[in-house]
Amino acid sequence: xxxxxxxxxxxxxxxxxxxxxxxxxxxxxxxxxxxxxxxxxxxxxxxxxxxxxxxxxxxxxxxxxxxxxxxxxxxxxxxxxxxxxxxxxxxxxxxxxxxxxxxxxxxxxxxxxxxxxxxxxxxxxxxxxxxxxxxxxxxxxxxxxxxxxxxxxxxxxxxxxxxxxxxxxxxxxxxxxxxxxxxxxxxxxxxxxxxxxxxxxxxxxxxxxxxxxxxxxxxxxxxxxxxxxxxxxxxxxxxxxxxxxxxxxxxxxxxx
Amino acid sequence: xxxxxxxxxxxxxxxxxxxxxxxxxxxxxxxxxxxxxxxxxxxxxxxxxxxxxxxxxxxxxxxxxxxxxxxxxxxxxxxxxxxxxxxxxxxxxxxxxxxxxxxxxxxxxxxxxxxxxxxxxxxxxxxxxxxxxxxxxxxxxxxxxxxxxxxxxxxxxxxxxxxxxxxxxxxxxxxxxxxxxxxxxxxxxxxxxxxxxxxxxxxxxxxxxxxxxxxxxxxxx
Lengths: 256, 221
Hints:
heterodimer, A: alpha/beta, Rossmann fold, 2 domains, six-stranded mixed sheet, 10 helices, 24% strand, B: mainly alpha, 0% strand, elongated
């Protein structure tokens, strides 16, 4: 379990997060949603330890992330995988080298074991056989998959994904969502995804945290989204004219 | 991983800079010879001094300082851009999430590679400079082969070679560490990355020249 406790973050006079309390449930797909500028990425970076909060604490079970020693932090890092918005694959390395990088750095596995693990992770993301390609030689969707493969290579307990669907077509985005859910369920991982993709919210959101202007505006799950009257949630979900029309039609026909 | 990365950096810095160091050193030696030929003309100074002057100019100052300034431009900007680009593309964040000590992983191999390869490049530069001086002196007909070689063998002080290597190690440290710092702490977009790269070169060259003066005062004063 990961818990954000009274998280505040300011950059000079800009108060991005104004006291976030939220529990990210274990072995579930947790979503942080909200409009651009709501503070989603900042919250995710604080949760993962890339940024220090101005106030508040981040708890990994009973460990306070902000109070960990370097050694404890390194141990915790071994349990964390992250998929970045821009994938953050190392350009000068092949797909295989990218995926095995964490193993090369931190494990004493033999070459054979590493190769088997790389192949297994690529299989998990349906990307078999691209071991020797460079990131520049594969599509954006494939890069996301490789990013996921690298994130899970050390069998993490926690998986973070920063806008995994950004820049992808709707169909590929759905595939990536499905993949993240599958991996979460199959490996019993606590997954935290930062997104503003409505498909993700409706399809994979087992525990959702809606941020609005740096505050927690709503929390719930995908089944509670449509029937909820929270104006901020409704404004966020039905932001596009197309969805507004669908909503109006649905309401005219007696609801969703 | 550190070993592999250090070897890669050694190749980039060493082999990657060999051609420019060779060309520049050749002309530095040649120009030194031509200029001193002009200045010594009509004086009482023995003609074989040309070899002595070219040798010591190359060893004590020109080979090491010119090479380091060129490397501050080539290697310094390359390092700052590489690390800065990694910062912007979230590669450094990705490594930190994995638990990698990024300052160590990204800086140490570059620093080690520079500390090993730049003295080697400076040695090459010194030899090529003297060669350039030799060709400019003898092929122009201003001096004979014997005169140049006699000067080359005269008044040799081994300590000067030690000074050259001390300078090369100090300059290597300066240009690499400044470039790594500028790249590692870059913030913003492409314009800021370009500015960081420029700062790495400018600050690197200024610091090399200041260090050159200090070492000259301390070791030859």
